[in-house]
Amino acid sequence: MQGMGETFYTNKYINNNNFFQIRDEEPQIKATPKPVRLVANPRTSFDSERSYIIIGGLGGFGLELCRWMVERGAKHILLTSRSGIRNGYQRLCMSRWKKEGKNIIVSTENAANLKEAKQLLQRAAAIKPVGGIFNLALVLRDAFMENQTVKNFEEVCDSKVSSTMNLDALSRDLCLSLQWFVCFSSVSCGRGNAGQTNYGYANSVMERICEHRTQEGLPGLAIQWGPIGDVGILQETVGSDVVISGTISQSIRSCLSVLDKFLQQKHPVVLSCVPYLPENISSTKTSKTSVLSAVGKIFGAGYTLSTVAEIENCRRSCRLQSLSPEFGLLVSPTRCKSPKDMSQDSKFQTFPIFHLVQPARASSIFHGEAGDDPSRWLKEYERIAKFNRWDDTMCLTNAYSFLKGTARLWYENNEVNLSSWEKFQEQLKIAYGSTELFIKQVERELKNRAQKRVRAHSPVFKVI
């Protein structure tokens, strides 16, 4: 074997039919191969060699959809809007895509018109074969049934029904390589909504067209969306904090994540909404926990807040977080460190939000009542701060949680002037410690006010 190895490394040309036996065969061992199952996460992608059409593409959802498609590989997209580019955000998006080398075109053709719809498809097919059509057209004429008119029904149906019928008929001849034919419907169609009978009817017709297409083996998908948050007509009119047909608003990020899954299945009509469940907060105890949990999530805390003091502490620590870029601090509200870890980590300076390692005793709370000595409380507070390895900034931040009564009210009224831990101690001793210092400070303030009042009433100052 050694000689063969030398031949292997020294000879320049070796016959490929030579084999090396490393060890003897083991016929007594019979190992059957086992199949291995791997979890695959499918991901929707778009072909850069195809064009895509978004009807109503300059709306809030349309721009987000276009951005999402560009991130997934699309390069040629036609956005239709009867009014064209109207605001600065639309211009900003178009400018960014142009710099990235994307061919995003704004068209004013109305898909509800058969002639203009044909021109739109021909224009897209001239660029690249059409790979997908997304109909986001929307017109609302809400009113109760007794107040609805024929004109209202016609205007709503033109944007939904007429455009979908035209695109369906024309795409059969002009878009032979079509992969997606997607129509955005509404939960108002599937579950109903008072005042939107015309809108629900138009969406229902659009869904029947998609069902008919799938029966013929053509792509067709209608998505019943609930209220959309962040962007869109709901956000612009009434805001996102509303309940519609028993549903609450769904974030645009969640909508795009769901759309990714919808484009990979074969059902013609699907639904995506966030149900409103008031029974989850029926009891007082549960309601309190839910509200505090929500506040904790808003502040980015990694645990459930249980007291109002913790909420205030969280708010003040988040204020430090906003100042971190300016002062070079690393503020992490969700990262909890033990005193040992903080002593070893000397490279970074962290201000985490966490429960006190050293429990607060009754003597560590300062109420500012008669007989309370701020010097004694500061001594007790510094003992807790030393044990928890707080620096001056953390001492100032957590001090609010150790103040009650008039002391807390004093902190809230003078928070602007308490810029440092030394300033806090000085002002606290002046306010509650030495009576002489407190009297001098009051006299100084009264004197300044009197001088300002005299100047304001002086004839010279009036002329000036």
TrEMBL record:
It comes from the Eukaryota. GO terms for molecular function: fatty acid synthase activity; oxidoreductase activity. The keyword Cytoplasm does not apply. InterPro entries: KR_dom (IPR057326), NAD(P)-bd_dom_sf (IPR036291), PKS_KR (IPR013968), PKS_NRPS_Biosynth_Enz (IPR050091). GO terms for biological process: fatty acid biosynthetic process. Residues 50-231 form the Ketoreductase domain. Keywords: Fatty acid biosynthesis, Fatty acid metabolism, Lipid biosynthesis, Lipid metabolism, Multifunctional enzyme, NADP, Oxidoreductase, Phosphopantetheine. Pfam families: KR (PF08659). This is Fatty acid synthase.
